Amino acid sequence: MPPLKTCARAWRRDATVRAPLHVCEISCDVKVMGDQPTFFDEMKRADGTARPPYADYCEWLETVKLSDLRKKSREAEIFFRRTGITFNVYGQKDADERLIPFDLVPRIIDGKEWRLLVRGIEQRVRAINAFLHDIYHRQEIIRAGRIPEHLIAQNEAFLPEMIGVTPPGGVYTHIVGTDLVRTGANEFFVLEDNARTPSGVSYMLENRETMLKMFPELFSQIKVQPISNYPSLLRRSLGKCAPNRCTGSPTVAVLTPGLHNSAYFEHAFLADQMGAELVEGHDLRVVDGRIAMRTTQGFQPVDVLYRRIDDEYIDPLNFNRDSLLGVPGIMDVYRSGGITLANAPGTGIADDKAIYSYMPDIVEFYTGQTAILKNVPTYRCAEADSLKYVLENLAELVVKEVHGSGGYGMLVGPAASKRELAAFRAKLEANPSNYIAQPTLALSTVPVLARDGLAPRHVDLRPYVLVSPDSIDITPGGLTRVAMKAGSLVVNSSQGGGTKDTWVLEE
Q1: CATH assignment, 377-439
Q2: What's the pLDDT tens digit per position in 179-188?
Q3: Location of each CATH 3.30.1490.270 domain in the chain
Q4: What is the pTM of this model?
Q5: Beta strand 22-23 with 488-489: parallel, antiparallel or unpaired?
Q6: Class for domain 244-338, per CATH?
Q7: Which ranges in the chain are annotated with CATH 3.40.50.11290?
Q8: Residues 305, 491: Cα–Cα separation, whole Å
Q9: Does residue 113 register a pLDDT over 60?
Q10: What pLDDT, on a 0 to 100 scale, did the predictor assign at position 260?
């Protein structure tokens, strides 16, 4: 088998994606060359030379045989299976314990590029926390006319039970997953702000561990910033947010819905890595005004609960009375300052897609600065003029449910049939406030190991942010999600997407 010089030539021939756009949750303007869309290639320039962040990696690639890479890919798959790195897809009979696809060609980001992203992410996260405190207290941003009152008051993600409640340390979003997409050399956009229970960090960590096992020589040649300290940083950050009633070292636990949840592997993984207890609702109860967990020595108080359960199910006495996943009375304990819930209840309004379109205003209002990271242009279908435009251009736009996630419940205009367009038009006209629309995005590409060698595939990026009363820590890299099919922009694992290791180079 020849070295990857041959494969690189094949990859260059495929550098312009010629398939129709099969979009997931991503949007922005598509760049067109001739009659075909073109996309920013993160690894190589148009003339085939490597971009600076990839220079050392491409030099190494020239010495590697394709057969050796395929062997390493098989070994990585075996490792993932043995480790139990799986996820579930709801609504599919054969979807239990599915292995997430992993591609062993890393996504590499320059240290200077990363420094700019860090500044933008920090600014955005500070604004989000200030926004959450404001809307659950004085609502100054509404008084100032920067956000319509109905967008808050009538939003199902707004939690009236949180009005007047200040979380311990003033932190609402302890863990944030900021989804980023790239369209050019210095062009990054925020796709969404995951402020509820962002998932995927276990895959980020295991991807790096796998790459270290497969290619130890690469990490001695290329200086990549480490990410292995994330669990300890998470534990420390959560501990700093313990309530005032905590005495001694804070007790941290992870609350999971249970084995059948799609992200259960991650819940168990993080609990283990942090040295925290993994608990379910039936393991917890209210004892002397505190939340206590069942142990072999009786019930012991919990100070910080990293909850991976949605607001609706966390407390059957205050929310969904049919919930068997939560803890009866936990909201009363929380409001009295007896426990820290991470993330705080009611944070979902900060990543609501209708609120997303106001994020530049939110950043400016609370920081006094222009947003460093741009939003994707967004049409609010609740507004008459925007709705008119969307209906007239439905075949060219991506339309999403305001509260949707995972790529479900959306329309991809360029890929939709006439029948699908007509059916979605009816839904849009019946309930316009439930939708926003965006133009189609020209997602950047990074090569994957495909059947015939290296081939470009579209990617996004989810950096993970830890927030405590005195610091904001952003893991250098994050989870790169990749569309595994040629021409597809579907990066969600639930819809066939895979993952890559993300390298941020030392400066």
Answers
A1: 3.30.1490.270
A2: 999 999 889 9
A3: 377-439
A4: 0.88
A5: parallel
A6: alpha beta
A7: 244-338
A8: 30
A9: yes
A10: 86
